[in-house]
Each structure stands twice: as C-alpha cells, then as structure tokens.
Amino acid sequence: MGTRARSTLLAGLRALALAVVGLAGSVTLFVVTVLSLAFILLGVGALTTPWVLQLVRHWANWRRAVAAEWCGVRIPATYRPFPDDLRTGVIGQLERCRLMLADPATWRDLRWLPVDMIAGFVTALVPAALVFYPVEGLVIAAGLWRVFTDGTHVGYWYGFVPIAGQGTALLAGLLAAVLLATGLFVTPALLKVHFQLTRAVLAPSDGELAERVRVLTETRKDAVDTSAAELRRIERDLHDGAQARLVAMGMDLGTVEALIEKNPQKAKEMVARARQSSADALTELRDLVRGIHPPVLAERGLGDAVRALALRMPVPTEVGVDAAGRADAPVESAAYFAVSEALANAVKHAGADRIWVDIRHDAGQLRIAVTDNGRGGATVGAGGGLAGIERRLGTFDGVLAVSSPAGGPTMVTMEIPCVLS
Fold it and tell me: What is the number of alpha carbons within 13 Å of residue 153 lying toward its C-beta?
C-alpha cells in the first residue's frame, strides 16, 4: 500500500505539472505559430516561422520524452532531416521554412497544440484532482468548514455536498475518502491516458506507416537482388579468372612432370610459367577479396579505407573525416562502396580533375559528401550508378541527395542513420 501511495502521489504531482505547464506552453506556442504563419503573406513570417516551428518541435519532443520516462508510452519523432548543403542567411531561412512546412510531422505538431491545451489539459487535471482535491474535503471534515459558513446557511460546496455544519462536513470528508481511494487505483492509469492521447495525435498515420512499409519492402528486395548479383559476379570472376589460372597451372605442372627427365630446359620454362600463373591467381584473389570487403575497411574503419581508395584515384582527391568511432560493419561496407561508386562516376562521367570527400557523424547520422569540379548534369536515373547508390543506402534507411547544375560542380550527399561505437 505504501508503494501504491507513493506512485499515486508522484503521478498526481506529474499530472498537476502537465496541466499547468502544458496549458501555458501549448496556448503560447499555438498563438505565436498562428501569428507567424499569418505574417508569411507579409514576408516577415517566412523568416520567423522556422524559429517558431523549431520551438514547437522542442515542445513536442519534451512531451515525447516524459511520456516514455513517466509512463512508458513511446511516441516516434519522424521529422525529415535538413540537407547538409542548406544555405545560411535569408535564403537559407526561406528554404528552411519551405522544408518545415512541407513536412507532415510539422502539421501533426500544430494539430496537437489545440488538442493538448483542451483535451490534454483535462486528462492531466483529472488525475491531479483525484490526488489533491480529497485533501480539502478531509480538512473540511476536521473543522475547517467553520471558516466558510456560520453554521446556519450554506456558504460553501465541496463537490456536490453543501457545507452547512459538522454533519455535512463529515459527508464531505466521506466523499473525499472515496475520491482518494479511487485515485489510489486509477491515477497512474489516467496519467497514461493523457500520453496515449498525445501519441494518437503526434504519431504517424496508418497511411504514412504503410508507405514506410512499402519503401522498406522495396529496399529489402533491392538488397536481395543486389546480393544475388554480387554473388553471381564473384562466381563469374572466380570462374573466368583465378580458377582458370589454377587449372592452367595444374596442366603446366602435369606437363613438367612428363618433361622433367626428357627436356629439363622446357620443364624449367613451364615451372616459371606456372609460378607466374600462381602469382597472377593470387593477385586476382586479393582483388576479389578487396571487392567483397577491403581488408583496410575491416581493420581500420571507413575513414582510412576511403583515404586508401583516394590514393588509388587518377585525380587528386582530398578526404576529411570527423567521426569518433566506427559504425556497424554492414553500414561501413555500404558507405564504402557508395563512395567508391561516386568517385568512379566523378572520374568517368564528370571529367573532374579534383575531388573532395567529407565524412562526419552528427546527430545519429553518418553524412558523406563527395564533391567534384566536373561538368555537372548528374541525375539519379533508373539503372545508373547513382540509382545503385540510392538502392544500396536504402537498405539501411539511408538517403541520397544530388546537386549537379550544368557546368558543375557536383555534390553527392549520402546520409545513413547509425550509431558509432
């Protein structure tokens, strides 16, 4: 009973804080947001709206955090990330405003504000009242009723009980006891109802979730197809390369065995050729292994693997890395081969004579930008190299953005959600 009483009191205090702070915060942000959106027609609102909407997001994220911490109610935040190349200044602020207003999560936040300051206030106030309102009834029954009435006329009501004397004060005390007993059993559940209401408004709709499932299904199919194609490539390379050389080396060694007594000079030549074949087969096997998973990537991580890749490029390539730690091996592999493909496109199609690669990890996102000074005009078309990068990143819920005006420069930006260890 002591544990139940403590949890009820804690839930009541939290509900009271939500009722007071939530009402003030949601009303203020709702009014400010409406004014800022209205001023967009005058031009001023386009500059203020991103700041206001960012405050709304912080407010909603705080509610998500306390929902998870206090009642275990998980409310996903599905805001679209801003591109890395978003400009600063007035132009960047206007673009930020457009991106935020195009995000469905923004409009869910704005719909939630009036719901929170009405229904949310009520669902927070009820559990708080069940904890604290009975205190008033108990002190009235203890004699405080004399402060509110002269004993002959009804001067005060407690709930539906008119207080006119000690008898009615005891009825108020009985009502308070009933409310307190009820609160002991239902207050934590009623607080959870408040957060479930919040989740009902802030969580993505079924349509958005269905679209997300569709995208994940497609990326999974692409991943399976890519894995099958990669397996066929490995089998073909082994069959046409190392396997053929090993077979030839075996035949040469068989000939050496037959000639070693009859024609030692010819046998020596055949041994030399077999040794060269073994060296060539070993080189091809190493190249094949490097194509599957480069040893430097496994040993030293993505940054050093990309630096090693840059050293083999035919044009000067600068690599900058700002990531403390390593991502999971599949993520590193996908990022490595995506960078490799982007570099190959820059040399083969863009005619670039200088390339820059920037790798950094920020806010749970691995961000990679590959920039070249080539001719530009790159697009993410079906069947192209950039489309392959997009499919590869999509397997890990990553995204690809390409900025490539005619005449250049071209910037290929990749983002993969991940954590570093």
Answer: 2
Cα–Cα nearest to 361, from 306, 318, 322: 322
Q: How many C-beta atoms surround the C-beta of residue 363 within 10 A? A: 7
For residues 185 and 131, is the Cβ–Cβ distance under 8 A? no
Which phi and psi angles does 416 have, rounded to 5°?
-130, 120
Contacts (Cβ under 8 Å, ≥6 apart) of 212: 204
Residue 414 has pLDDT above 70, yes or no: yes
DSSP state at residue 356: E
User: Do the beta carbons of residue 368 and residue 414 sit within 8 Å?
Assistant: yes
Its pTM stands at 0.52
Among residues 359, 361, 379, the alpha carbon closest in space to that of 369 is found at 359
Q: Rounded distance, CA 106 to CA 78, Å?
A: 9
Residue entry with tokens 């894995």 = 227
Tell me the sheet residues that pair with 415: 367, 399
CA distance 43 to 39: 6
Q: Which residues contact 291 (CB under 8 A, 6 or more apart)?
A: 237
d(CA 360, CA 413): 11
Question: Are 364 and 409 in contact, with CB atoms under 8 Å apart?
Answer: no
Which comes out higher in pLDDT, residue 402 or 20?
20
Strands 355-362 and 317-322 turn out to be parallel
Summarised one tens digit per residue, pLDDT across range 317-337 is 999 998 888 888 888 888 888
Least confident of 104-113, 224-233, 259-268, 408-417: 224-233
Q: Residue 42 is inside which H or E element, if any?
A: none
Q: Is the peptide bond before 83 cis (omega within 30 degrees of 0)?
A: no
Q: Tell me the per-residue pLDDT of 380-398, one tens digit each, with 9 for 90 and over.
A: 764 566 777 877 787 777 8
Judged by DSSP in three states, 384 sits in: coil
DSSP string spanning 44-72? SHHHHHHHHHHHHHHHHHHHHHHHHHHH-
**How does pLDDT run across 301-321, given as a tens digit for each residue?**
888 888 988 888 888 899 999
On the question of pLDDT at 360 being above 70, the answer is yes
Tell me phi and psi for residue 261, to 5 degrees. Answer: -95, -35
Contact 282, 245 (CB under 8 A): no
Report how far residue 265's alpha carbon sits from residue 256's, in angstroms, rounded to the nearest whole number. 10
Q: Comparing C-alpha atoms, which of 193, 172, 183, 177 is closest to residue 129? A: 183
Q: Give helix then strand counts, H and E, for the chain.
A: 14, 7
Query: Closest by alpha carbon to 109, among 65, 70, 57, 183?
Result: 57
Amino acid of residue 65: A
